[in-house]
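pipeline stage [seq->struct] | target=Oxidoreductase | organism=Trinickia symbiotica | residues=272
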Amino acid sequence: MPSPKVFHERLSGKVAIVTGAGSLGHGFGTGKAIACLFAAEGASVCLVDQQHERAAETLTLITDAGGQAFISTGDVTDSAVCARIVDETVERYGGLDILVNNVGISGAPGRLEDIDEASWDRVIDVNLKSAFLMSRSAVPKIVARGGGAIVNISSVAGIRSHGSAAYGSSKAGMVAFTRELAVMYGRDFVRANAIAPGHIFTPMVESMLNEKARERRRKIAPLPLEGDAWDVAAAALFLASDESRFITGTCLPVDGGVTEIAALAAYDLVQQ
C-alpha cells in the first residue's frame, strides 16, 4: 500500500518510542514506516537504532513533514542503554505513552546441528530480550501517565513453523511475552498487543529473496500479493491508538491470510 496521505491526529499529544526505526537503504522497513506514521498522526517519537545513519533518513522524513522526533542510538540488548533511551525520551517530551518493540534480525538458519550457541543467543537477545529490557524500563513511565500501549512486532513464524528454530522461537516468545504484559499491567491501563507480519516486502527481505521466492509467497496466501511496511504500520497505529482501548493480549496477523491455510488448500492456491 502507498504511504497514507490522510491523517486524523489519532496520536495527538502522545509520546512514543520505536525500536529499529532505521532502515536498510532508502526503502521502508517496518520500524521506519511505524515511526513516520505515528509522527504524522501527532506523536512525538524517539527513533531508536544501533546505527545513527540508519535512523537519520527517518528523522528527516518526519521533521520535513512538520513532525517531532529525535534519534537515540544504542544496543537494546543492553539494559543500561534501554534505561537511558527511556530517560532521554521522558526528559525531552515529558512522559511516555507508547512503546513499539520492533527491532529484530533473522539469523541462525538451518538445522539445529548447524546453529552455534552464539548465533542462537544473538537472535533470542535481539528479538526477545530487547523487548523485555525496553518494556521493563518503559512500563513505569507509561503507568505514570495513566496508561498507554505496548505494541510488539512478532511474526507469523511465531505462530506457525517457519523452518528457523531460533527465529521462530524468539517470535513465539514475543507473543507469550505480550500476553504476560497484558495480564500484569492491565489494571494500570497498559495495553499490550502483538503483530505477526507475514510475507511483508521490506528492504531486508529484498536482500534475502529473489523474484522466484517472492512469486511463491504471492501464490500461497488467499490474498495473492505481498504486504509492505505500511500494512504493518497501519496495524500498529490502530493498536497504539485509543481506537483499540478494549483490546489487549492479542496477536494480530498481518499476512494476507497465510496463517489460515491448511496444506491441501495451499497446494490448490499455488496451482491456480
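stage status: PASS
auto-comment: The radius of gyration is 18 Å. The CA atoms of residues 70 and 92 lie 9 Å apart.
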